[in-house]
């Protein structure tokens, strides 16, 4: 193993260094009593035992753990503040118990009255696992007093009092009821993440609170985070009270790489095996990577090296957004005693989640970030360094149930050079979906109160896109069209709801539903590194020369017909979980279509119809060969003029001559720019299905 990866500069945990300038009330945990509780726990073996508990297989005394949390210890003071203030910001260390304890403390006092308590989370895995944990702590079933609501899954009932839900789900509820009357208390958690949905929710909740307070139907709002920019939030919420909770659970020792790492995937594998041979097996690892493909590659490498490496047996668990929920939860399952669990995750494991017995975090310091081009509306994905706040959150995952360590594969200098906080997503992301939601709730986009307003150009570009999608009447007077209203019925991006809603016109709703469903799930192909050739060969039987979309459709159709699905997937190197998840999604999309009285037509093998239908929603994602010739190895120019190559995994890769025009699903920027999930189209189709955009696009090219 290369020795340069062994050298980490040790540094003291600096999690307290965040500068909080706002006037604040400090609530301190009594150091001695906290220490004693911790020591007692350890003496009881409740934090240090070797048995790894799955989420619902509670081996520790949850009530003891609960009572040792800083938030629990000062709960009476916190309650006092919450009673006094309609709006409050609560800052507390990662792991201090904000997300699991505050809702319970409120509910124990019945502060929610006849309403419910909503706790928003930027990510579904956090919403689900938190609800499961809190249900266990409250000794109740999920869906009873505690529940969760995430896209495509609602585990609540009329008697649910504490609801963990994604910010996107609360936004959808706001379309039906902008005053969110179902809730008497709304907790906006992980405020520092500044996702576009959370930023919009800040505004919706602020307006709802103002109006409801006038009508005597009060709404309490609590904003929580470990690392947020307090001054900005305090100004936005009219100088509301800030409660700063001092006190932590377990220390995390931070190590930085001494030298810059050129190949982080390689560094990750080296770091894992260096630590693997020197750390006890019950210290599980959590590794932060940037995406599914990378996770699969690293996973394959670990499995390969593990065969010859000394040290305990290894169980590798992936965790990324597109993984079907049931598979995500496997991360919380116990492993046999003496086995090391290594979780390979994207930033979805960064905030709010607790994976028991993770004592070692290995952080690449990178994240895959979505941004977009105002002019053409095309989106792109880039791998970029994450903010300091994100780095602290990641490190915090190591100190949840015991003291831990975080190994950063970047230097201290690199860390210090990073921005303190995440750039709000609203500044860099496409806004069409958000604006559609706002317009649907009856809000006026130009006067809507946002903490950080996106540039007027960006808003205008998104309104133009909505106009071209047929969702609004005009960009200057944004009113929903009949089509736009229907689009809001689907919990998916407006580009994809447009595809579904255009399908009857192209006679292909059956196929469009399957395609959108399979594209909403994650990669269906499973390509283990050591069996790459077999996997590539197996893929051939599904490949269409028309491109990856029809290839995906072929896979999905054959999966639906296969009698022994698991076995069939194994034989064909396909991901059974992702395909099953696609089936669930299709089911739900179909139910919405049926509610809208749409007729389910099929185009059979007339795939031109399906591709035109796909283009009617994804028209911003076209690329052309330059002057009819590809430049270099399959290079195309996107609508913004950026050069990009077909991804080597595309079924069009290597086709001679290359199709003059293609439709892609995503533009990925790694060392090169790649078009992902690509189909050949006829250049004139763009004019047929999106004439306004085609004219605008030609003028810009
Ligand atoms: N699923 C779980 N299994 C075991 N312990 C858990 C679980 N969820 C929470 N805990 C315990 O409760 C503690 C508090 O978790 P909680 O999510 O409430 O903290 P938090 O202050 O909201 O942290 P963050 O800012 O990171 O979201 C954890 O550190 C851990 O000790």
TrEMBL record:
PROSITE patterns: DEAH_ATP_HELICASE, HELICASE_ATP_BIND_1, HELICASE_CTER. GO terms for molecular function: ATP binding; double-stranded RNA binding; hydrolase activity; RNA helicase activity. CDD domains: DEXHc_DHX33, SF2_C_RHA. Coiled coil: none annotated. SMART domains: DEXDc, HA2, HELICc. Residues 271-443 form the Helicase C-terminal domain. The keyword Nucleotide-binding applies. One of its GO terms (biological process) is positive regulation of transcription by RNA polymerase I. Signal peptide: none annotated. One of its GO terms (cellular component) is nucleolus. It comes from the Eukaryota. It catalyses: ATP + H2O = ADP + phosphate + H(+). Residues 79-246 form the Helicase ATP-binding domain. This is RNA helicase. It comes from Pieris macdunnoughi.
